[in-house]
User: What shape does this take?
Amino acid sequence: MSETTDEHQNSHRKAENEEQKLALLSSLEKETSKQFSNNNDTTLVEIKPIKKSILSVKMVITFAVLAALIGGISILTKQFKPSSSMAGMEDMKGMSMEDMMRVDGSSNATPVKVESIQPGLMEASVRYTGTVRPYLEVTVYPRVGGQLTEYSAYPGSKVKAGQVLARLTATELSDEVKEATTEMQAAKADEQVSRKELDEQRQEIKRMAAESTYLETRVQRTEQVLLDSGAIARNDFDRQKSEAISAKAALGAAKVKLERMQAQIAKAQAQVAQAQVKIHRLKVIESYKIITSPITGIVQERMADPGVFVQPGMGILKIGDYSKVRLQANVAQQNLTGVEIGSPIVARVIGNSTKTIKGRVTSIFPKAGEETRTVTVEAVVDNRGGKILAGQAVEMQIITDHKPNSLSVSQAAVIESEGKQAVWVIAGKSAKRKFITTGLTSGDRTEVTSGLQPGDLVITSGQERLIENASVAAVDDSGQPVASLSSAAVQGNTQIKLVSPQGKAVSGDNQLVLEVQDSKTKKPVKVEGLEVSVAMPMKNSSPMSTDVEVKADTQSGRFKVNTYLGMSGKWEVTAKVKDKSRIGNSSFTLDNR
Assistant: This one.
Protein backbone atom coordinates (compact mmCIF):
# COMPACT_ATOMS: atom_id res chain seq x y z
CA MET A 1 0.00 0.00 0.00
CA SER A 2 2.89 2.38 0.80
CA GLU A 3 4.49 1.59 -2.56
CA THR A 4 1.27 2.51 -4.31
CA THR A 5 1.10 5.82 -2.40
CA ASP A 6 4.73 6.67 -3.30
CA GLU A 7 4.10 5.98 -6.95
CA HIS A 8 1.02 8.18 -6.83
CA GLN A 9 2.99 11.04 -5.21
CA ASN A 10 5.83 10.72 -7.77
CA SER A 11 3.35 10.89 -10.58
CA HIS A 12 1.73 13.97 -9.08
CA ARG A 13 5.14 15.68 -8.54
CA LYS A 14 6.14 14.95 -12.16
CA ALA A 15 2.94 16.55 -13.44
CA GLU A 16 3.62 19.71 -11.38
CA ASN A 17 7.19 19.97 -12.80
CA GLU A 18 5.85 19.67 -16.34
CA GLU A 19 3.33 22.47 -15.70
CA GLN A 20 6.13 24.74 -14.33
CA LYS A 21 8.27 24.10 -17.41
CA LEU A 22 5.40 24.99 -19.72
CA ALA A 23 4.75 28.22 -17.82
CA LEU A 24 8.48 29.18 -18.02
CA LEU A 25 8.62 28.55 -21.76
CA SER A 26 5.49 30.62 -22.31
CA SER A 27 6.99 33.55 -20.36
CA LEU A 28 10.25 33.31 -22.30
CA GLU A 29 8.41 33.42 -25.58
CA LYS A 30 6.54 36.57 -24.60
CA GLU A 31 9.74 38.35 -23.40
CA THR A 32 11.53 37.47 -26.64
CA SER A 33 8.76 38.88 -28.76
CA LYS A 34 8.67 42.07 -26.72
CA GLN A 35 12.45 42.54 -26.90
CA PHE A 36 12.43 41.97 -30.60
CA SER A 37 9.82 44.68 -31.00
CA ASN A 38 11.83 47.22 -28.94
CA ASN A 39 15.10 46.46 -30.74
CA ASN A 40 13.41 46.93 -34.07
CA ASP A 41 12.14 50.40 -33.16
CA THR A 42 15.55 51.57 -31.81
CA THR A 43 17.35 50.30 -34.85
CA LEU A 44 15.06 52.21 -37.15
CA VAL A 45 15.77 55.44 -35.25
CA GLU A 46 19.53 55.05 -35.13
CA ILE A 47 20.16 53.86 -38.65
CA LYS A 48 18.61 56.74 -40.46
CA PRO A 49 22.02 58.26 -41.24
CA ILE A 50 23.51 54.81 -41.97
CA LYS A 51 23.41 53.13 -45.29
CA LYS A 52 20.61 50.75 -46.20
CA SER A 53 22.98 47.80 -46.72
CA ILE A 54 23.99 47.71 -43.04
CA LEU A 55 20.33 47.82 -42.01
CA SER A 56 19.49 44.87 -44.20
CA VAL A 57 22.25 42.72 -42.70
CA LYS A 58 21.12 43.39 -39.14
CA MET A 59 17.53 42.63 -39.97
CA VAL A 60 18.45 39.30 -41.51
CA ILE A 61 20.49 38.36 -38.43
CA THR A 62 17.67 39.42 -36.11
CA PHE A 63 15.04 37.36 -37.96
CA ALA A 64 17.33 34.32 -37.95
CA VAL A 65 17.78 34.54 -34.17
CA LEU A 66 14.02 34.95 -33.71
CA ALA A 67 13.26 31.93 -35.88
CA ALA A 68 15.73 29.81 -33.89
CA LEU A 69 14.12 30.85 -30.60
CA ILE A 70 10.58 30.09 -31.80
CA GLY A 71 11.63 26.65 -33.15
CA GLY A 72 13.33 25.78 -29.86
CA ILE A 73 10.27 26.80 -27.89
CA SER A 74 8.05 24.61 -30.12
CA ILE A 75 10.31 21.59 -29.66
CA LEU A 76 10.42 22.05 -25.90
CA THR A 77 6.64 22.39 -25.78
CA LYS A 78 6.10 19.10 -27.60
CA GLN A 79 8.77 17.39 -25.56
CA PHE A 80 7.22 18.31 -22.24
CA LYS A 81 3.55 17.99 -23.32
CA PRO A 82 1.61 15.71 -20.90
CA SER A 83 1.10 12.16 -22.21
CA SER A 84 -2.38 11.06 -23.36
CA SER A 85 -1.85 7.45 -22.45
CA MET A 86 -4.97 7.52 -20.32
CA ALA A 87 -7.19 8.25 -23.32
CA GLY A 88 -10.00 5.80 -23.80
CA MET A 89 -10.31 5.17 -20.06
CA GLU A 90 -13.42 7.28 -19.61
CA ASP A 91 -15.00 4.39 -17.74
CA MET A 92 -12.37 4.89 -14.98
CA LYS A 93 -13.10 8.58 -14.54
CA GLY A 94 -13.35 9.48 -10.90
CA MET A 95 -11.10 6.62 -9.74
CA SER A 96 -8.00 7.32 -7.79
CA MET A 97 -4.67 5.79 -8.74
CA GLU A 98 -4.93 3.57 -5.68
CA ASP A 99 -8.33 2.28 -6.80
CA MET A 100 -7.13 1.51 -10.30
CA MET A 101 -4.14 -0.37 -8.96
CA ARG A 102 -6.42 -2.70 -7.01
CA VAL A 103 -8.50 -3.64 -10.05
CA ASP A 104 -7.26 -6.48 -12.21
CA GLY A 105 -7.88 -5.24 -15.73
CA SER A 106 -8.69 -8.12 -18.04
CA SER A 107 -8.33 -6.32 -21.36
CA ASN A 108 -5.77 -8.92 -22.43
CA ALA A 109 -8.11 -11.85 -21.73
CA THR A 110 -9.03 -14.04 -24.70
CA PRO A 111 -12.72 -13.64 -25.64
CA VAL A 112 -14.52 -17.01 -25.80
CA LYS A 113 -18.04 -18.38 -26.04
CA VAL A 114 -19.14 -20.90 -23.44
CA GLU A 115 -22.06 -23.11 -22.46
CA SER A 116 -23.01 -24.63 -19.13
CA ILE A 117 -23.59 -28.33 -19.72
CA GLN A 118 -26.44 -30.07 -17.93
CA PRO A 119 -27.77 -33.67 -18.00
CA GLY A 120 -30.40 -34.31 -20.64
CA LEU A 121 -31.73 -36.75 -23.16
CA MET A 122 -29.11 -37.69 -25.75
CA GLU A 123 -30.41 -39.20 -28.96
CA ALA A 124 -28.29 -40.65 -31.73
CA SER A 125 -29.93 -40.12 -35.07
CA VAL A 126 -29.45 -39.79 -38.78
CA ARG A 127 -30.95 -36.98 -40.83
CA TYR A 128 -32.12 -37.16 -44.42
CA THR A 129 -34.25 -35.10 -46.71
CA GLY A 130 -37.35 -37.05 -47.67
CA THR A 131 -40.61 -36.53 -49.49
CA VAL A 132 -44.31 -36.78 -48.68
CA ARG A 133 -46.61 -39.21 -50.45
CA PRO A 134 -50.35 -39.79 -49.92
CA TYR A 135 -51.34 -42.80 -47.87
CA LEU A 136 -53.25 -44.16 -50.87
CA GLU A 137 -53.16 -42.96 -54.47
CA VAL A 138 -55.43 -44.25 -57.24
CA THR A 139 -55.93 -43.42 -60.90
CA VAL A 140 -59.53 -43.48 -62.16
CA TYR A 141 -59.96 -45.28 -65.48
CA PRO A 142 -63.17 -45.58 -67.58
CA ARG A 143 -64.25 -49.21 -68.10
CA VAL A 144 -66.08 -48.50 -71.35
CA GLY A 145 -65.54 -46.13 -74.20
CA GLY A 146 -67.56 -42.94 -74.41
CA GLN A 147 -67.60 -39.17 -74.37
CA LEU A 148 -66.97 -37.42 -71.02
CA THR A 149 -69.95 -35.44 -69.78
CA GLU A 150 -70.87 -33.94 -66.39
CA TYR A 151 -67.13 -33.88 -65.64
CA SER A 152 -66.93 -31.50 -62.67
CA ALA A 153 -64.12 -32.97 -60.53
CA TYR A 154 -61.12 -30.66 -60.27
CA PRO A 155 -57.73 -30.77 -58.45
CA GLY A 156 -58.26 -29.98 -54.80
CA SER A 157 -61.86 -31.20 -54.79
CA LYS A 158 -62.71 -33.43 -51.85
CA VAL A 159 -64.62 -36.54 -52.88
CA LYS A 160 -66.15 -39.51 -51.10
CA ALA A 161 -66.13 -43.15 -52.07
CA GLY A 162 -68.98 -43.79 -54.56
CA GLN A 163 -69.39 -40.13 -55.47
CA VAL A 164 -70.16 -39.52 -59.17
CA LEU A 165 -67.16 -37.92 -60.86
CA ALA A 166 -68.25 -37.99 -64.52
CA ARG A 167 -70.63 -39.64 -66.99
CA LEU A 168 -70.06 -41.16 -70.41
CA THR A 169 -72.31 -40.91 -73.46
CA ALA A 170 -72.40 -44.41 -75.14
CA THR A 171 -75.65 -45.12 -77.14
CA GLU A 172 -74.29 -48.42 -78.50
CA LEU A 173 -74.54 -49.98 -75.08
CA SER A 174 -78.22 -49.05 -74.79
CA ASP A 175 -78.97 -50.62 -78.21
CA GLU A 176 -77.28 -53.84 -77.20
CA VAL A 177 -79.39 -54.02 -74.06
CA LYS A 178 -82.58 -53.58 -76.09
CA GLU A 179 -81.53 -56.27 -78.56
CA ALA A 180 -80.76 -58.71 -75.76
CA THR A 181 -84.11 -57.95 -74.17
CA THR A 182 -85.92 -58.75 -77.42
CA GLU A 183 -84.08 -62.03 -77.77
CA MET A 184 -85.02 -62.98 -74.24
CA GLN A 185 -88.66 -62.20 -74.83
CA ALA A 186 -88.70 -64.36 -78.01
CA ALA A 187 -87.09 -67.22 -76.10
CA LYS A 188 -89.70 -66.94 -73.40
CA ALA A 189 -92.51 -67.05 -76.03
CA ASP A 190 -91.06 -70.19 -77.58
CA GLU A 191 -90.87 -71.72 -74.17
CA GLN A 192 -94.50 -71.00 -73.45
CA VAL A 193 -95.65 -72.55 -76.80
CA SER A 194 -93.55 -75.62 -76.17
CA ARG A 195 -95.05 -75.99 -72.73
CA LYS A 196 -98.61 -75.96 -74.18
CA GLU A 197 -97.70 -78.57 -76.77
CA LEU A 198 -96.11 -80.61 -74.04
CA ASP A 199 -99.29 -80.53 -72.02
CA GLU A 200 -101.32 -81.64 -75.04
CA GLN A 201 -98.91 -84.43 -75.75
CA ARG A 202 -99.18 -85.63 -72.19
CA GLN A 203 -102.98 -85.83 -72.54
CA GLU A 204 -102.64 -87.73 -75.79
CA ILE A 205 -100.24 -90.15 -74.17
CA LYS A 206 -102.72 -90.77 -71.40
CA ARG A 207 -105.47 -91.57 -73.95
CA MET A 208 -103.21 -93.77 -75.98
CA ALA A 209 -102.03 -95.58 -72.86
CA ALA A 210 -105.64 -96.29 -71.86
CA GLU A 211 -106.48 -97.57 -75.32
CA SER A 212 -103.39 -99.75 -75.40
CA THR A 213 -104.27 -101.20 -72.03
CA TYR A 214 -107.82 -102.01 -73.18
CA LEU A 215 -106.65 -103.73 -76.33
CA GLU A 216 -104.11 -105.82 -74.46
CA THR A 217 -106.72 -106.85 -71.91
CA ARG A 218 -109.16 -107.82 -74.67
CA VAL A 219 -106.57 -109.95 -76.38
CA GLN A 220 -105.78 -111.73 -73.16
CA ARG A 221 -109.47 -112.41 -72.41
CA THR A 222 -110.19 -113.57 -75.95
CA GLU A 223 -107.21 -115.84 -75.97
CA GLN A 224 -108.10 -117.50 -72.66
CA VAL A 225 -111.80 -117.89 -73.01
CA LEU A 226 -113.17 -117.53 -76.48
CA LEU A 227 -110.30 -118.96 -78.53
CA ASP A 228 -110.25 -122.27 -76.58
CA SER A 229 -114.00 -122.68 -76.88
CA GLY A 230 -114.06 -121.78 -80.57
CA ALA A 231 -116.38 -118.87 -80.02
CA ILE A 232 -114.22 -116.53 -82.15
CA ALA A 233 -112.36 -117.11 -85.30
CA ARG A 234 -108.59 -117.11 -85.44
CA ASN A 235 -108.47 -114.16 -87.80
CA ASP A 236 -110.49 -111.99 -85.46
CA PHE A 237 -108.15 -112.87 -82.66
CA ASP A 238 -105.08 -111.98 -84.73
CA ARG A 239 -106.67 -108.68 -85.70
CA GLN A 240 -107.33 -107.79 -82.06
CA LYS A 241 -103.80 -108.73 -81.18
CA SER A 242 -102.44 -106.56 -83.98
CA GLU A 243 -104.48 -103.62 -82.83
CA ALA A 244 -103.13 -104.02 -79.31
CA ILE A 245 -99.56 -104.11 -80.59
CA SER A 246 -100.14 -101.02 -82.79
CA ALA A 247 -101.62 -99.12 -79.89
CA LYS A 248 -98.65 -100.00 -77.71
CA ALA A 249 -96.25 -98.88 -80.43
CA ALA A 250 -98.11 -95.61 -80.89
CA LEU A 251 -97.96 -95.03 -77.15
CA GLY A 252 -94.18 -95.47 -77.24
CA ALA A 253 -93.85 -93.01 -80.12
CA ALA A 254 -95.96 -90.52 -78.23
CA LYS A 255 -93.68 -90.83 -75.24
CA VAL A 256 -90.59 -90.18 -77.41
CA LYS A 257 -92.27 -87.10 -78.83
CA LEU A 258 -92.98 -85.97 -75.26
CA GLU A 259 -89.33 -86.27 -74.38
CA ARG A 260 -88.37 -84.31 -77.49
CA MET A 261 -90.80 -81.59 -76.58
CA GLN A 262 -89.38 -81.48 -73.03
CA ALA A 263 -85.91 -81.03 -74.51
CA GLN A 264 -87.18 -78.17 -76.62
CA ILE A 265 -88.63 -76.54 -73.54
CA ALA A 266 -85.32 -76.95 -71.72
CA LYS A 267 -83.56 -75.36 -74.67
CA ALA A 268 -86.00 -72.48 -74.63
CA GLN A 269 -85.43 -72.07 -70.91
CA ALA A 270 -81.67 -72.00 -71.48
CA GLN A 271 -82.10 -69.38 -74.17
CA VAL A 272 -84.16 -67.30 -71.78
CA ALA A 273 -81.52 -67.64 -69.04
CA GLN A 274 -78.78 -66.81 -71.51
CA ALA A 275 -80.67 -63.77 -72.65
CA GLN A 276 -81.15 -62.71 -69.04
CA VAL A 277 -77.42 -63.06 -68.35
CA LYS A 278 -76.63 -61.06 -71.44
CA ILE A 279 -79.07 -58.37 -70.41
CA HIS A 280 -77.56 -58.24 -66.89
CA ARG A 281 -74.05 -58.05 -68.29
CA LEU A 282 -75.02 -55.27 -70.69
CA LYS A 283 -76.75 -53.37 -67.93
CA VAL A 284 -73.65 -53.67 -65.77
CA ILE A 285 -71.55 -52.42 -68.66
CA GLU A 286 -74.04 -49.64 -69.22
CA SER A 287 -73.63 -48.67 -65.55
CA TYR A 288 -69.95 -48.09 -66.28
CA LYS A 289 -71.03 -44.96 -68.08
CA ILE A 290 -71.30 -43.46 -64.59
CA ILE A 291 -67.75 -42.97 -63.24
CA THR A 292 -67.52 -42.89 -59.42
CA SER A 293 -64.69 -42.36 -56.93
CA PRO A 294 -63.20 -45.62 -55.59
CA ILE A 295 -61.90 -43.96 -52.37
CA THR A 296 -62.48 -40.99 -50.11
CA GLY A 297 -59.82 -38.40 -50.74
CA ILE A 298 -58.75 -35.34 -52.70
CA VAL A 299 -58.50 -35.00 -56.46
CA GLN A 300 -54.80 -34.59 -57.27
CA GLU A 301 -54.76 -34.35 -61.04
CA ARG A 302 -57.16 -34.03 -63.95
CA MET A 303 -55.84 -36.08 -66.85
CA ALA A 304 -58.59 -35.52 -69.46
CA ASP A 305 -60.80 -32.60 -70.42
CA PRO A 306 -64.61 -32.63 -70.65
CA GLY A 307 -65.99 -33.73 -74.03
CA VAL A 308 -63.03 -35.97 -74.83
CA PHE A 309 -63.84 -39.50 -76.08
CA VAL A 310 -62.07 -41.88 -73.72
CA GLN A 311 -61.33 -45.58 -73.88
CA PRO A 312 -60.75 -48.25 -71.22
CA GLY A 313 -57.20 -47.93 -69.80
CA MET A 314 -57.11 -44.17 -70.35
CA GLY A 315 -56.72 -42.41 -66.97
CA ILE A 316 -58.89 -39.39 -66.38
CA LEU A 317 -58.30 -38.52 -62.67
CA LYS A 318 -55.86 -39.12 -59.82
CA ILE A 319 -57.22 -39.21 -56.27
CA GLY A 320 -55.18 -39.41 -53.07
CA ASP A 321 -56.13 -40.37 -49.54
CA TYR A 322 -54.60 -37.72 -47.27
CA SER A 323 -56.07 -38.82 -43.95
CA LYS A 324 -52.57 -40.23 -43.47
CA VAL A 325 -49.36 -39.57 -45.37
CA ARG A 326 -46.22 -41.54 -46.04
CA LEU A 327 -42.89 -39.90 -45.21
CA GLN A 328 -40.16 -41.55 -47.26
CA ALA A 329 -36.40 -41.00 -47.12
CA ASN A 330 -33.60 -42.81 -48.92
CA VAL A 331 -31.11 -43.83 -46.23
CA ALA A 332 -27.54 -44.78 -47.07
CA GLN A 333 -26.81 -48.42 -46.28
CA GLN A 334 -24.02 -47.50 -43.84
CA ASN A 335 -26.55 -45.53 -41.74
CA LEU A 336 -29.11 -48.32 -41.46
CA THR A 337 -27.58 -49.62 -38.23
CA GLY A 338 -30.12 -49.03 -35.50
CA VAL A 339 -32.95 -48.25 -37.93
CA GLU A 340 -35.77 -50.76 -37.51
CA ILE A 341 -39.54 -51.02 -37.59
CA GLY A 342 -40.81 -48.88 -34.73
CA SER A 343 -37.81 -46.52 -34.55
CA PRO A 344 -39.01 -43.00 -33.60
CA ILE A 345 -38.82 -40.28 -36.22
CA VAL A 346 -39.09 -36.50 -35.99
CA ALA A 347 -39.80 -34.65 -39.21
CA ARG A 348 -40.24 -31.04 -40.25
CA VAL A 349 -41.61 -29.72 -43.50
CA ILE A 350 -38.85 -27.67 -45.08
CA GLY A 351 -39.89 -24.04 -44.91
CA ASN A 352 -42.10 -24.61 -41.87
CA SER A 353 -39.72 -25.37 -39.02
CA THR A 354 -42.34 -24.57 -36.36
CA LYS A 355 -44.44 -27.67 -37.04
CA THR A 356 -42.95 -30.92 -35.80
CA ILE A 357 -44.20 -34.27 -37.09
CA LYS A 358 -43.63 -37.26 -34.85
CA GLY A 359 -44.10 -40.91 -35.73
CA ARG A 360 -42.38 -44.26 -36.08
CA VAL A 361 -40.83 -46.23 -38.91
CA THR A 362 -43.54 -48.44 -40.41
CA SER A 363 -41.69 -49.94 -43.36
CA ILE A 364 -38.16 -50.56 -44.61
CA PHE A 365 -38.10 -51.42 -48.29
CA PRO A 366 -36.42 -54.79 -48.94
CA LYS A 367 -34.24 -53.65 -51.84
CA ALA A 368 -31.47 -51.07 -52.08
CA GLY A 369 -31.01 -48.94 -55.17
CA GLU A 370 -28.31 -50.43 -57.34
CA GLU A 371 -27.02 -47.01 -58.34
CA THR A 372 -27.51 -45.03 -55.11
CA ARG A 373 -27.03 -47.90 -52.60
CA THR A 374 -29.79 -46.39 -50.49
CA VAL A 375 -32.82 -48.01 -48.89
CA THR A 376 -36.22 -46.34 -48.63
CA VAL A 377 -37.37 -45.95 -45.03
CA GLU A 378 -41.04 -45.04 -44.58
CA ALA A 379 -43.15 -43.72 -41.73
CA VAL A 380 -46.93 -43.44 -41.94
CA VAL A 381 -48.23 -40.53 -39.84
CA ASP A 382 -51.63 -38.95 -39.27
CA ASN A 383 -52.45 -35.86 -41.32
CA ARG A 384 -55.16 -34.13 -39.36
CA GLY A 385 -56.53 -31.22 -41.27
CA GLY A 386 -54.72 -32.30 -44.43
CA LYS A 387 -52.00 -29.67 -43.94
CA ILE A 388 -49.20 -31.95 -45.11
CA LEU A 389 -49.20 -32.07 -48.89
CA ALA A 390 -47.87 -34.68 -51.29
CA GLY A 391 -44.55 -33.83 -52.86
CA GLN A 392 -43.40 -31.57 -50.03
CA ALA A 393 -39.79 -31.96 -48.92
CA VAL A 394 -39.29 -32.93 -45.29
CA GLU A 395 -36.25 -33.20 -43.06
CA MET A 396 -36.48 -36.59 -41.39
CA GLN A 397 -34.56 -37.36 -38.22
CA ILE A 398 -34.53 -41.09 -37.49
CA ILE A 399 -33.64 -41.89 -33.88
CA THR A 400 -31.27 -44.87 -33.78
CA ASP A 401 -30.42 -44.81 -30.05
CA HIS A 402 -31.13 -42.70 -26.98
CA LYS A 403 -29.78 -42.25 -23.46
CA PRO A 404 -31.48 -40.21 -20.70
CA ASN A 405 -29.54 -37.95 -18.32
CA SER A 406 -26.46 -37.74 -20.51
CA LEU A 407 -23.97 -34.89 -20.77
CA SER A 408 -23.28 -33.57 -24.24
CA VAL A 409 -21.21 -30.80 -25.81
CA SER A 410 -21.08 -29.09 -29.15
CA GLN A 411 -18.80 -30.89 -31.58
CA ALA A 412 -17.09 -27.55 -32.16
CA ALA A 413 -15.86 -27.66 -28.56
CA VAL A 414 -14.07 -31.01 -28.93
CA ILE A 415 -10.36 -30.82 -29.74
CA GLU A 416 -7.59 -33.39 -30.02
CA SER A 417 -4.70 -33.07 -27.59
CA GLU A 418 -1.91 -35.58 -27.05
CA GLY A 419 -3.79 -38.07 -29.19
CA LYS A 420 -6.89 -37.81 -26.99
CA GLN A 421 -10.17 -35.94 -27.18
CA ALA A 422 -10.46 -32.94 -24.88
CA VAL A 423 -12.37 -29.73 -24.24
CA TRP A 424 -11.49 -26.37 -22.68
CA VAL A 425 -13.45 -25.31 -19.60
CA ILE A 426 -13.49 -22.11 -17.58
CA ALA A 427 -12.23 -22.43 -14.02
CA GLY A 428 -12.55 -19.05 -12.36
CA LYS A 429 -10.98 -16.66 -14.86
CA SER A 430 -8.68 -19.17 -16.53
CA ALA A 431 -8.99 -21.85 -19.17
CA LYS A 432 -8.36 -25.47 -18.20
CA ARG A 433 -8.08 -28.43 -20.55
CA LYS A 434 -10.00 -31.59 -19.66
CA PHE A 435 -9.68 -34.93 -21.43
CA ILE A 436 -13.01 -36.58 -22.19
CA THR A 437 -14.48 -39.83 -23.48
CA THR A 438 -17.22 -39.46 -26.08
CA GLY A 439 -20.18 -41.64 -26.95
CA LEU A 440 -23.23 -41.04 -29.14
CA THR A 441 -23.31 -38.35 -31.78
CA SER A 442 -26.48 -36.53 -32.80
CA GLY A 443 -26.35 -33.62 -35.22
CA ASP A 444 -23.82 -31.14 -33.83
CA ARG A 445 -23.85 -32.66 -30.33
CA THR A 446 -21.52 -35.31 -28.91
CA GLU A 447 -22.16 -37.31 -25.75
CA VAL A 448 -19.52 -37.09 -23.03
CA THR A 449 -19.36 -40.30 -20.99
CA SER A 450 -16.49 -39.20 -18.72
CA GLY A 451 -14.30 -36.21 -17.99
CA LEU A 452 -16.93 -33.55 -17.28
CA GLN A 453 -19.40 -32.74 -14.50
CA PRO A 454 -22.82 -31.09 -14.71
CA GLY A 455 -22.47 -27.33 -14.57
CA ASP A 456 -19.00 -27.23 -16.15
CA LEU A 457 -18.52 -24.18 -18.38
CA VAL A 458 -17.27 -25.55 -21.68
CA ILE A 459 -15.66 -23.22 -24.20
CA THR A 460 -17.32 -23.65 -27.59
CA SER A 461 -15.58 -20.93 -29.60
CA GLY A 462 -12.20 -19.21 -29.40
CA GLN A 463 -10.36 -22.21 -27.96
CA GLU A 464 -7.89 -22.39 -30.83
CA ARG A 465 -5.93 -19.50 -29.25
CA LEU A 466 -5.83 -20.92 -25.73
CA ILE A 467 -3.04 -22.31 -23.61
CA GLU A 468 -3.27 -23.86 -20.17
CA ASN A 469 -4.31 -21.32 -17.48
CA ALA A 470 -4.80 -18.59 -20.07
CA SER A 471 -6.97 -15.67 -18.97
CA VAL A 472 -10.36 -15.79 -20.71
CA ALA A 473 -13.47 -13.61 -20.87
CA ALA A 474 -16.90 -14.84 -21.95
CA VAL A 475 -18.70 -13.05 -24.77
CA ASP A 476 -22.12 -13.59 -26.35
CA ASP A 477 -22.95 -14.29 -30.00
CA SER A 478 -22.71 -10.60 -30.89
CA GLY A 479 -19.26 -10.33 -29.30
CA GLN A 480 -20.48 -8.35 -26.31
CA PRO A 481 -18.97 -9.33 -22.96
CA VAL A 482 -21.04 -11.25 -20.44
CA ALA A 483 -20.06 -11.14 -16.82
CA SER A 484 -22.25 -14.06 -15.77
CA LEU A 485 -22.79 -17.33 -17.54
CA SER A 486 -25.78 -18.48 -15.54
CA SER A 487 -29.07 -16.88 -14.72
CA ALA A 488 -30.32 -16.23 -11.29
CA ALA A 489 -32.36 -19.41 -11.60
CA VAL A 490 -31.05 -22.38 -9.67
CA GLN A 491 -29.33 -25.16 -11.61
CA GLY A 492 -28.81 -28.61 -10.14
CA ASN A 493 -29.74 -29.76 -6.63
CA THR A 494 -28.22 -26.77 -4.84
CA GLN A 495 -28.89 -23.04 -4.80
CA ILE A 496 -26.71 -20.15 -3.64
CA LYS A 497 -28.26 -17.24 -1.76
CA LEU A 498 -26.76 -13.78 -1.22
CA VAL A 499 -27.16 -13.12 2.52
CA SER A 500 -25.41 -9.75 2.60
CA PRO A 501 -25.18 -7.00 1.63
CA GLN A 502 -28.95 -6.65 1.35
CA GLY A 503 -28.81 -3.11 0.03
CA LYS A 504 -26.33 -1.41 -2.26
CA ALA A 505 -22.66 -2.25 -2.20
CA VAL A 506 -20.06 0.42 -1.49
CA SER A 507 -17.12 1.59 -3.52
CA GLY A 508 -13.99 0.07 -2.09
CA ASP A 509 -13.68 -2.95 0.17
CA ASN A 510 -16.76 -5.19 0.38
CA GLN A 511 -17.49 -8.44 2.18
CA LEU A 512 -20.19 -10.67 0.75
CA VAL A 513 -21.83 -13.50 2.65
CA LEU A 514 -23.12 -16.37 0.48
CA GLU A 515 -25.13 -19.32 1.78
CA VAL A 516 -25.36 -22.69 -0.01
CA GLN A 517 -28.82 -24.24 0.34
CA ASP A 518 -30.57 -27.43 -0.73
CA SER A 519 -32.89 -26.64 -3.64
CA LYS A 520 -35.85 -28.51 -2.15
CA THR A 521 -35.57 -27.94 1.62
CA LYS A 522 -33.98 -24.46 1.39
CA LYS A 523 -31.79 -25.44 4.32
CA PRO A 524 -28.03 -24.71 4.48
CA VAL A 525 -25.81 -27.56 3.33
CA LYS A 526 -22.11 -28.06 3.80
CA VAL A 527 -20.03 -28.27 0.61
CA GLU A 528 -16.35 -28.68 -0.13
CA GLY A 529 -15.90 -25.22 -1.54
CA LEU A 530 -17.30 -22.30 -3.51
CA GLU A 531 -15.88 -20.75 -6.67
CA VAL A 532 -16.66 -17.04 -6.96
CA SER A 533 -15.79 -14.42 -9.56
CA VAL A 534 -16.64 -10.71 -9.62
CA ALA A 535 -16.51 -8.68 -12.82
CA MET A 536 -17.95 -5.57 -14.41
CA PRO A 537 -19.05 -5.58 -18.07
CA MET A 538 -17.14 -3.00 -20.10
CA LYS A 539 -18.21 -1.31 -23.31
CA ASN A 540 -16.19 -2.41 -26.35
CA SER A 541 -13.91 -4.44 -24.13
CA SER A 542 -13.74 -7.63 -22.15
CA PRO A 543 -15.23 -7.59 -18.62
CA MET A 544 -13.05 -6.10 -15.91
CA SER A 545 -12.59 -8.52 -13.04
CA THR A 546 -11.39 -7.81 -9.53
CA ASP A 547 -9.61 -9.89 -6.92
CA VAL A 548 -11.73 -12.23 -4.81
CA GLU A 549 -10.92 -14.03 -1.57
CA VAL A 550 -13.31 -16.83 -0.50
CA LYS A 551 -13.28 -18.22 3.05
CA ALA A 552 -15.61 -20.70 4.72
CA ASP A 553 -17.63 -19.19 7.54
CA THR A 554 -18.06 -20.79 10.94
CA GLN A 555 -21.74 -21.22 10.17
CA SER A 556 -22.38 -24.34 8.08
CA GLY A 557 -23.02 -23.68 4.40
CA ARG A 558 -21.88 -20.03 4.52
CA PHE A 559 -18.89 -18.40 2.85
CA LYS A 560 -17.36 -14.95 3.22
CA VAL A 561 -16.20 -13.33 0.01
CA ASN A 562 -13.81 -10.38 0.29
CA THR A 563 -13.49 -8.20 -2.80
CA TYR A 564 -12.76 -4.63 -3.84
CA LEU A 565 -15.17 -2.65 -6.05
CA GLY A 566 -13.12 0.31 -7.25
CA MET A 567 -15.24 1.50 -10.16
CA SER A 568 -18.80 2.74 -9.77
CA GLY A 569 -21.41 0.69 -11.57
CA LYS A 570 -23.01 -2.74 -11.69
CA TRP A 571 -20.78 -5.67 -10.76
CA GLU A 572 -21.73 -9.26 -11.64
CA VAL A 573 -21.05 -11.91 -9.01
CA THR A 574 -20.97 -15.53 -10.22
CA ALA A 575 -20.83 -18.38 -7.71
CA LYS A 576 -20.48 -22.10 -8.41
CA VAL A 577 -20.53 -25.01 -5.96
CA LYS A 578 -17.41 -27.16 -5.87
CA ASP A 579 -18.54 -30.50 -4.48
CA LYS A 580 -18.78 -34.10 -5.73
CA SER A 581 -22.38 -34.62 -4.64
CA ARG A 582 -23.72 -31.10 -5.11
CA ILE A 583 -24.44 -29.18 -8.31
CA GLY A 584 -25.44 -25.54 -8.40
CA ASN A 585 -24.53 -22.09 -9.61
CA SER A 586 -26.11 -18.64 -9.31
CA SER A 587 -25.38 -15.05 -10.19
CA PHE A 588 -26.05 -11.74 -8.49
CA THR A 589 -25.71 -8.07 -9.36
CA LEU A 590 -24.09 -5.55 -7.01
CA ASP A 591 -24.57 -1.81 -7.59
CA ASN A 592 -22.16 0.59 -5.83
CA ARG A 593 -23.23 3.77 -7.60
Observations:
- The radius of gyration is 58 Å.
